[in-house]
Amino acid sequence: MSLLQDLFITIVNMSITASYVAIGVIFVRLLLKKAPKVFSYILWIPVLFRLVCPFSFGSAFSFFNLINLNAKQGIGVSEFIPQNIGLMHTPEIQSGIGSIDSAANASLPQAIPAASVNPTQIWIDVFSIIWIFGIIALLIYSIVSYVKIKGKLQTATRLNGNVFETDAIGTAFVCGFIRPKIYVPANIEDATLSYILEHERTHIRRKDYLIKPLAFLALILHWFNPLMWLCFALMSRDMEMSCDESVLHKLGDSAKGGYSNSLLSLSVKRKGLLAANPLAFGENHVKTRIKNILNYKKPAFWVIIIVVVAVCAAVIAFVANPSESATYISEDYKISLKYPSHWESNPNYIERYEGKDGFFQVGAINGESLSIDEVTKNDAFHKLNPYGSDPKIINRTIDGQEARLILPSADQPEEMRNQAGLIVKYPKAIKINGSLYYYFILWADEAHIEQIGNTLTFLKKQSGNAIDIRWDLPAYVPQLLKDYAPVRDYAEDYVREQIKYYNSLGYNITDAKITAMTLVNTGTASLTKAVEMWRLEYRLLPDDAGKVVLAGGMKMEDGWLTEWGSAGQPLLVTVRDWDSKSEIWRRVGVFNTARVQEEYHGDYTAAAMALYHDFISKTGITWEYIPTRSSVFPALPIRINMSFSNAHVSVDRGTLWLNGETKTFNYIDCGKEADYTADKTVFWSPLESDALNSGDIATGCILRFEITADGGSIHKGTILVDQSKNTENGVRFYSVALAEINADLVLAESGEDGGGCILKLPDE
Question: What distance in Å separates the CA atoms of residue 36 and residue 57, rounded to the nearest whole number?
Answer without folding.
Answer: 29
